[in-house]
Amino acid sequence: MDTKVISTGIRYSNLPESYVRPESERPRLSEVSTCENVPVIDLGCQDRTQIVRQICDACKDYGFFQVINHGVSREVTEQMLQVAFDFFRLPVEEKLKLYSDDPSKTMRLSTSFNVNKEKVHNWRDYLRLHCYPLDKYLPEWPSNPPSFKGIVRNYCIQVRQLGYRVEEFIAESLGLEKDYITKVLGEQGQHMAVNYYPPCPEPELTYGLPGHTDPNALTILLQDLQVPGLQVLKDAKWVAVNPHPNAFVINIGDQLQALSNGRYKSVWHRAVVNAYKPRMSVASFLVPSDDAVISPPKALTGYDGSGALYKDFTYPEYYAKFWSRNLDQEHCLELFKN
Ligand SMILES: O=C(O)CCC(=O)C(=O)O
């Protein structure tokens, strides 16, 4: 490749060799059907018990769900998607000033997933930001487009509130105190991946992101309404989760799988690419504070703790392992099994 990123504005007529998956690993798009019954949970509903019940069912049966009436204003989500497109439309030389393939950087533009570890690349560029505490990280965010910092700041504040609310519902759905998860996870970090998938000459041969689970506690995903691309593994089959107007997709991450002692599974998902149109998604990740010990409550392990599926660990320990691997290797939680 001539440049480090693929969002150059130039359309490729063939998929470069380094993106082509072996036959057995390809997405087989014609075999993927749309998931018609994705749980859509109305957080504006007055009946809290009903929300908790719906979340419990969705977490058990799917590992993800969508939320509507979630409290993040439509104006803010529209502005977020617009400024994300504006960023990726900047001249490539401008974007490359932010390029890094070092996962420990708190602000970077990068490509694929882990270019230094992976054998086959993914058809994605992404801007990765740390977002909390805002005062600490906002100064290092891109200042081009000029409106970027202000828009993303507003978005991050509202999404964080939503994430904390959802974690309270999830705690209740596990039969725990409402604030159990938010207390255990401490003052959670917040990261963002602004994912840009340019039009791809051969979507059948590659991925935007191959199947993976998220290493964090909770993911709040904003999908481009125009172009579908998210697929999740449901009952051993990949199904497409088409964008729902004004909804966020909420994914259970590895930390909640461990904290719930496997009651809830972090969901396998992947992003496929489109031959004609670029696609954008904005993933916000809530992550445990560095000193939080991820250990399930006694109510979920038996009172002597002997039923704990995983060893206790901290997020920095987990995250270091996660980035030392490639995305499609064995599940990172397997490395922490008792
Ligand atoms: O683009 C998508 O829909 C999925 C993004 C994703 O899985 C991620 O950022 O981890």
From TrEMBL:
One of its GO terms (molecular function) is L-ascorbic acid binding. Keywords: Dioxygenase, Iron, Metal-binding, Oxidoreductase, Vitamin C. Gene3D superfamilies: B-lactam Antibiotic, Isopenicillin N Synthase, Chain (2.60.120.330). One of its GO terms (biological process) is defense response to oomycetes. Belongs to the iron/ascorbate-dependent oxidoreductase family. InterPro entries: DIOX_N (IPR026992), IPNS-like_FE2OG_OXY (IPR044861), IPNS-like_sf (IPR027443), Oxoglu/Fe-dep_dioxygenase_dom (IPR005123), Plant_2OG-oxidoreductases (IPR050295). Its cofactor is L-ascorbate. Pfam families: 2OG-FeII_Oxy, DIOX_N. This is Flavanone 3-dioxygenase.
